[in-house]
Amino acid sequence: MRILAVSDVPAKRYYEFYQPGSLDGFDLILACGDLRRAYLEFLVTMARCPVVYVRGNHDDEYLNAPPEGCVCAEDRLIVVGGVRILGLGGSYRYREGECMYTEAQMRRRVLRLWPSIKRHKGFDILLTHAPARGLNDFDTLSHRGFECFRTLLDKYRPRYFVHGHIHRTYAYNIPQRSQYGGTTVINAFEYCEIEL
Length: 196
Description:
Elements: E1 2-7, E2 28-31, H1 37-46, E3 51-53, E4 71-72, E5 76-80, E6 83-88, E7 91-92, E8 100-101, H2 103-119, E9 125-128, H3 147-156, E10 160-163, E11 177-180, E12 183-187, E13 190-195
Parallel strand pairs: 1-2, 2-3, 3-4, 6-9, 7-8, 9-10, 10-12
Antiparallel strand pairs: 1-13, 5-6, 11-12
């Protein structure tokens, strides 16, 4: 399965400089948040595959006007083409907003998903906006990762953990791909292509 992961800023290659057919080779598009509704609707219109998304900390408007034609994985475990995707959007709470959570709030969201995770015998991809604590995150509240994401990675060892929120333009040494145990961690800032 060929996957395009996107987050935070539109990928010029697949939007501003889009060439007809350039999205044809993908089987799935994963959107990790903080992307304009129009961009996701463009992707789902031009691609011949599903667009699955979670909300970012700047996506409060999605609550009333979600991107049309796209699949929201927020607080759900969904299966697309046999791939189990667990979706948990939003960031660490650093101000008021609908899509920001404390560690305790995110932990409660995860706990509500345990029955679904058990029923599906785990998941293949953890799809989030924020990173996990200690994996590509910063110490500032606005870019802190969640400890409970590391707990999920430790317990279920998914093949991929795909997140956004940490712009790779923030510093020269922010990796796009890294490893955590048997899980490949993908920072999907702008875009990243994945073979599953």
